[in-house]
Amino acid sequence: FSVPEMMTEPMLVSLDFCKHHFDNGTAAFIDSRDAEDFENGHIKNSINIPYDYYEDYEELIDSLDDNSAYIIYCSGGECSLSLDLADYLFNDMLFEKIFIFEGGWPQWRDAGYPSIE
Fold first, then answer.
1. 43: which strand partners?
2. Dihedral angle at the C-alpha atoms of 84, 26, 117, 37, nearest 10 degrees?
3. pTM above 0.70, yes or no
4. Is 66:98 a contact under the CB 8 Å cutoff?
């Protein structure tokens, strides 16, 4: 579950990858869903940066360490908010280590992993 030194694009990752980095504190989680969905349930200790309103979160984004690893998720399935936010952070904000958890909140919740509901 290592983080590559040099990434050329955001990388899709599995539930196991996410849980490993959650347990070891080696990546921060970003929920790209809107604030209401975030309030209804999210991965424990994740921060909320809704893709549709990311301009409103510029101060928060600027406060993040662009050398740290970030795992971005949304509602899984057909939800593309995590892909869009990952693309923005990687290409526009020049964050170096961006991962996309495709299974998202539903897969994490269904696995019974630490969450806030």
1. 115
2. -10
3. yes
4. no
- Which two three-digit tokens encode residue 88? 């923005």
Q: What is the pLDDT of residues 53-108, one digit of tens each?
A: 999 999 999 999 999 999 999 999 999 999 999 999 999 999 999 999 999 999 99
Contact between 85 and 72 (Cβ < 8 Å)? yes
CB 39 within 8 A of CB 79: no
Which residues, 6+ apart, have CB-to-CB distance to 100 below 8 Å? 10, 11, 12, 13, 71, 72, 73, 82, 83, 86
Six token digits for residue 110: 């269904």
Give the pLDDT confidence of 26-53 residue by residue, as tens digits. Answer: 999 999 999 999 999 999 999 999 999 9
